[in-house]
Amino acid sequence: MFKRTIKTLIVMLLTISMTMPIANVKAYEENYERNVMPARDYDKFDDNFNVNQSNSLVRSSQIPSTYSSVDEGFVTSIKNQNPYGNCWAYAACSVAESYLIKKGMASSDIDLSEAHLNYYMYHNKGDKYENTDNDQTNVIGKYSFTDVGADPRMLQLAMSNFGLASETSYPISKITTMQGSKEDQNNTQYVMTNSNLLCQQAKGNESIIKQAILDNGSVLACYYDTSTAYKNSNYYNSNEVNSFNHAISIVGWDDSYAANNFDNKPTRNGAWLIKNSWGTGFGNQGYFWMSYDEYSLGSVYSYEFKNKDEENIYQYDGTNNALRYTLSSNTSTYANEFLVKRTNEELNAVSVGSATSNIPYKLEIYTNLTDINNPTSGNCEVNQNGIIENDGINYIKLSKGISLKDNTYYSIVFTLFGTNENNASIMLDATLKGTDIEFIADTSNEYCFIKSYNTWGKLSDNTFRIKGITIKEEPKPIETIILNKTDITLTKGTSETLQATINPSDTTDDKTLKWTSSNPDVATVDNTGKVTAVGGGTATITVKSQNGKEASCEVKVTSKIESISLNKSNITLSKGTSETLKATINPSDTTDDKTLKWTSSNPNIATVDNTGKVTAVGGGTATITVKSQNGKEASCEVKVTSKIESISLNKSNITLSKGTSETLKATINPSDTTDDKTLTWKSEDENIAKVDGNGKVTGVG
DSSP states of 195-226 as a string? Predict the structure, then answer.
């Protein structure tokens, strides 16, 4: 559907009229030749569509009656295109040189390469992203690429594609032997940013042209060259010719230039100062005057340029085919998607080719597309509005630079708002064959879309001239790394994730970070900054960038005393002896206070000091307890043995009457003996006295 729709809505193809042969007429004066290109018909020549825009294009409060960029020092030396019919390349380079000089971007001796522009117009090698490698603009007729010429609409496309190189690198003397490469094609110093078709016919649009010359130093124009219209250094053809075969630059004017100076007298005074490319032997040192009334003078373009620097262009339109596509309704939305193929790139501008001017637009940039069949399926980074000012190429600076991530897709989405009086037209690239030039547009690897009834449709054989312009991001090294915490305390077995902030956040350095722990037995860390407490103690967590910047955090891991164990649960000691108990705190890496308190349940039996040394004091049993500050404890039962050392009686002699009794009291020494205290009483002579088991002595006889 979209393929059929786009074809039916192409309202104007590039006019490559091959009806007139090349007019390589020999000079009518000595020392020069009039080299021109095949004649082409003007497109809508009689529309004069910019007349109504003169008020907006003319900004000077008073345009002078005479002006010369030559006198101002903005025009470079006269060149000689002989023997080639590539006047368009000479005119374009001259206009670019004047612009760069006037804007202070180059010195007055700048010399741009016509050979480079001419050769790569018809020998496309592609771009750095390989999106246009198979697009071609081929010469197929009887002319060579140096003589076939170029429509100004083609010219603007080439200069916005690969740009302009220096004459030193690509001299005109080498044009027929050039064997260029992709690197050569893109080895340019300047690129065209804006082109504007000021008017199709110069006659009646003098103020617009003058303003552009005042702004930029010169303009490019075409006319139909015929030898019969020249008189000395003046040109005027009284015939109304609606075609062109020669391109020149207009570098000044004189409103009072007398009509009588021309062989065929025009209706009024006034003439343009024309810089030609037939050498200094032609006209007045290479210049001539052309009457304001010259009917064939048209396709007047102004150009703007910038230093190419490290600029690169994402584009699909590699041919120079200037098709245009007119909106079927007042509002239409177009999109080109591109695969990012380089790192450290910043998208900072876009370009769109328009066949109408003063059209409002909305521009959106989406990155990291999730669906390549939906240009708005990513993150909207830019949403800005403006006016497409030029009938030609329009360079639009983004409201902010956008960092592009390698191997992701981004989209440039344009919504154009036409009116009933001024329908918007966007330029297209497509395959087209003329008489002597053919355009081959390879769309096999392209992602170009148009929105219809809120549905995106992919174009199958056309490409919108929408470009993404990138620069290599300036190196922004990582300067510092900051952690959200410089110290943390964790309980053994718990975790916490540290957050590392890289400064500046838009660094172009590798953002991969390496995390390490000074003591993995205390704390470990993974590659996300997650710190896990392994054992009690202190460890330093360090995060380090690839360029050596680092930050650290001290991690304290707390480990509570869970239990205490003694090496013995019971011991037996002889009175007066000692033994030291050994207490083990669990876990050993505890960060709790390891001070222990030792106590005895009966210090009269056993005492214990603060080292766990148990001393047997008296016979019996005592419990030795060791206790931590957090209340964990362990105990050992201590049995102290005490031997009977002696027995004493309360009396060493007694006197009894026969039949009387007295009980002796026996005392065991020591009293805390742990020996068997059972006593056996015995009388030496029971006929005299007897004793019972309790020590009761009875006198017998």
Answer: EEEEEEESTT-HHHHHHHHHHHS-EEEEE---
